Amino acid sequence: MKGTIFVELIKMAEEAFGEDAVDDMLDRANLENGGAFTAVGNYPCSELVKIVEAASAQSGLSGDVLQRKFGHWMLAHFVVHYPEFFADKKNAFAMLEAIDGEIHVEVRKLYPDAELPKFETERVTADHLDMTYSSPRPLVDFCHGMIEACVDQFDEKADISRCPVHADPNSTTFQIKRPS
Ligand code: HEM
């Protein structure tokens, strides 16, 4: 995974727990590189999982909750650093529908080694979007947080529920329903 993701996760932890606590936490996380991540590096997702587990032990919050919070943090980061992807979308559904066929396609051009998930979307009704996420990485809750933050970003409200894909713990269908 891209180093930016690690750098942002550590920034979020530092803001929540303070720099000294995060240094201790990274020491205890048994990381291959001792916690020295750079934005231009590439690191295994298993290292990200170790940091989330260490942050969970530190805070008492579950890994799922932390991943979700991190999804909000990361979406806010993308809004600031890639505003052009958001500017031409008229609402959250349009944004979510553009990730697989447009946004992550551009990300892949910029970073050919990016590890990106797959999305399939279906408009069930005008106010109900189904979005099936699949990835070899255990990041369903991170994705959930990004979708929630995307809805917030467009100043909208939506109820987001999940319907797991059997036999694949890293995949899920998000059912995103706007109040009609
Ligand atoms: C609501 C909108 C978005 C959602 C739900 C979303 C979802 C995700 C998820 C879940 C991942 C983690 C990889 C995985 O699950 O296998 C990911 C990775 C990534 N996404 Fe998106 N994304 C969104 C928008 C964006 C935007 C606007 C950008 C900006 C360019 C972006 C750039 C990236 C990058 C750089 C990675 C990391 C790839 C790597 O580490 O190798 N995404 N995205």
UniProtKB/TrEMBL annotation:
Q: Where is the Heme NO-binding domain positioned along the sequence? A: 2-161
Q: What organism does the record attribute this protein to?
A: Pontivivens marinum
**What taxonomic classification does the UniProt entry list for its organism?**
Bacteria, Pseudomonadati, Pseudomonadota, Alphaproteobacteria, Rhodobacterales
Q: Show the InterPro entries listed in the entry.
A: H-NOX_domain_sf (IPR038158), Heme_NO-bd (IPR011644), NO_sig/Golgi_transp_ligand-bd (IPR024096)
Q: List the protein's name.
A: Haem-NO-binding
Among the Pfam families in the record, one is HNOB
- Domain of life from the UniProt record: Bacteria
What GO molecular function annotations does the UniProt record carry, in alphabetical order? heme binding
